[in-house]
Amino acid sequence: MKFLSLARTIPEETRTTPEFNLHFYETLHVPFPLRPFQIGRPGSELAAVRAKESGDWKDLSGAEKEALYRGAFMQPITEQQQGTDMWKGIIGAMMLVMGSISCLTYELHTDVSGFKPNQAGFWYFWQPGWAQVRKNIAAENIFLEYTGSFNQRDYKHWDYVNHVWKNPQATRIDGAD
Amino acid sequence: MSLFRALRPALTAQTRRLTVSASLNSAAPAAPLRRDDVMAAWVEYFDHPDCDYYNYRLGAQHLFSDDLLFDPVVYQAMLYACRRFNNFPAAMRTLELIRLKCGDREDVYDWVMQELAPTLEDLGIPTVEDMNLHIVETEL
Asked: Of A1, A21, B31, B59, which is most buried with the most CB atoms under 10 A?
């Protein structure tokens, strides 16, 4: 079961035979490869069978026909159509990432933001005590009106009377969230 | 005719004949080939005495990349071409690709094999099921 295999692996006993052809390439898109899978060096059994191929094919035995086919192709079409188990590896990796992000988010929410279980959420944020949090967030708006030399005041889009953005959907230049 | 051509004055820059590309661009498009003409053309391609494994590959890749099952005459010509350049595995691969092309239509595959049965018997080629190329041992 190959969870993260990106290519078909050739077994070692096939790769290490002297008949193995490094220049062999076969896919469903290129079903007729130009070079055979096994070279058939002169004097080998495969060369003898290939010499017999020139004669009548009815004289070839079943084993010889099998040897000819296996010598020319690595995998039959049915084997090439097989899938891999890579989707299991992908979904597993995805779940690992999502789990780790969830752990990180929980740590941030509890230890950094101070949210407690059953004490956070859209309804809970309007309880007393959260008003100070909102005031702290609104206090950051002072940076938009502070006349420092480093401050880029967006006077065109900031409403200095109501201390809010004129168009809240407009992009802010200070980069805050 | 050649003497008449020599006596003709040389063409100047003003009077110029139409080039080949211009006449082709202005020509009307050719009529589409009929189905029987397509089959006959492919049979002629594979029956040609100069057809070797390279030409066979080229034609076969063209054929099997098309979403179409050709008449068994074409496949018959392909098998005889394999016999001519003495390549038995190519014939088996052709039969496998016919089986792939038929998809889940077993009746169509049976019919094509029925039409090709005399050819297979004449050349001594077993079918895909005879050589067990349709069975795959799953690896765990």
From this structure: B59
Enumerate the domain spans of chain B: 35-123
Q: Closest Cα of chain B to A76: distance in Å?
A: 6
Residue from A77, A79, A82 to probe the interface with B (highest B Cβ count within 10 Å): A77
**Facing B89 at nearest CB: one of A30, A56, A73:** A73
pLDDT tens figures, A125-142:
888 888 998 899 888 888
What are the CA-CA distances from residue A152 to residues A97, A135, B20 (Å)? 39, 23, 68
Class for the domain spanning B35-123: mainly alpha
Q: Is A89 exposed, middle or buried (0-12, 13-18, 19+ CB in 10 A)?
A: middle
Q: Flag if B87 and A56 touch (Cβ within 8 Å).
A: no
B52: closest CA among A34, A40, A18?
Answer: A34
**B116 SS3 class:** helix
